[in-house]
Amino acid sequence: EVLAAQQERLVRDGIAADRLVARLAEHAEIGATPDGGVCRLALSDADRAGRDRLVAWMHELGLTVQVDRIGNVFGTRAGSEPGAAPVMTGSHLDTVATGGRYDGVYGVMAALEAVRRLDELAVTTRRPIVVAAFTNEEGVRYQPDMMGSLVHAGGLALPDALDTVGIDGTRLGDELVRIGYAGDLAVGAIRPHAFVELHIEQGPVLEAEGLAIGAVADLQGISWQEITVEGQSNHAGTTPMRLRRDAGAAAAEIVVFVRELALRFGEPQVATVGRLRLHPDLINVIPARATLTVDLRHTDEAKLQQAEAELAAFLERLAAERGLTVKSRRLARFEPVVFDQRLVRTIEAAAAARGYGVRRMTSGAGHDAQMMARIGPAAMIFVPSAGGLSHNPREHTPAEQLAQGANVLLDVLRRLAG
Ligand code: HGY
Ligand code: MN
Ligand code: MN
Ligand code: MN
Fold first, then answer.
1. Which residue, by CA, sits nearest to atom 6 of ligand 1?
2. If you measure from the C-alpha of residue 232 to the centroid of ligand 2, how many angstroms do you get, rounded to a whole number?
3. What is the CB < 6 Å shell around ligand 1?
4. Which residue, of 21, 152, 194, 199, has the fewest CB within 10 Å?
5. Residue 7 confidence class, pLDDT cut points 50, 70, 90
């Protein structure tokens, strides 16, 4: 009944919104952009500053800080049974270039607040609790995304990750050394008993249904590829249409095909051409080359493969009909993931115990939890995103909802760490 009383008190004396919001606001100053957003590309100076701030806060909380060889940062709160596998929570600090103030960092800051609360309430857990911040979750500068957690889970060999060349031509391993986060902890060294990630939903569902918490049961598959179309540059004025090998026009047809494929497949199929560059990109020169990226996602692996196959067939036809060379390079490919159903139920129960509206749901976005699910039980807690907006400087979640998510995380950590 001691645990029950502690539980009761913990439920009552949860995490206050003000301190969580203050920590998030302070961290959002790092890499702040004029439009109110944040830009902390993986392994950039802003990422370093964001990591340094986290490490300082971890030390303030008395956590034992370790950095592994891909730069993942771990802060451990000791448990009464040191040899017990830890309960791990966390997310990422890197952002897309036009990022918001919550994607990733919210899960890490809430984890710090949960640790602080456990200390203030003098709660000792049997298992250690580890707060993690994974390297390069966004995959914007270096593909694939979720890279730090993928290496941790054994899905990508460390040398290959270190040799990754970014969209800016830099080598990931060099940047890791430059920012001082090429740690010495072996990758994958910390094998968690369970992993729970708190994250903003980045979509419209919870807000539309007026619910405070999402218990994420599964996560859709992701396919990223870069397509290069090679044609021939020529004079825009003198070249008759029938003689053109116009890489730009072909790229436009690919963009339309990809969108129509998603509409034809119907929800939850999504498809995005996020990057599109023409060369030489001049007003009176027929483009010789087009380079574009395609992001395809679906909850069903067979459907995702079908989408990839239909796109590949379209590219072949286009190349033949237009006299072009079309190549595709895979940048990332993750199958759909089903999270640990017991953990999902624990999240639902913790939310319900606080009287929060909660529902099971699928994550449209990729997350570190999907990689951690490869090596042990993993699940996620979502809070609503205002207007469903994310990967946008106007990303927002009201303080009350941030605190609700943090309190569910606190309760779940308490239950798992025993
Ligand atoms: O693209 C994604 O869903 C991940 O956040 N990088
Ligand atoms: Mn994220
Ligand atoms: Mn993101
Ligand atoms: Mn993500």
1. 138
2. 40
3. 137-139, 145, 365-366
4. 21
5. low
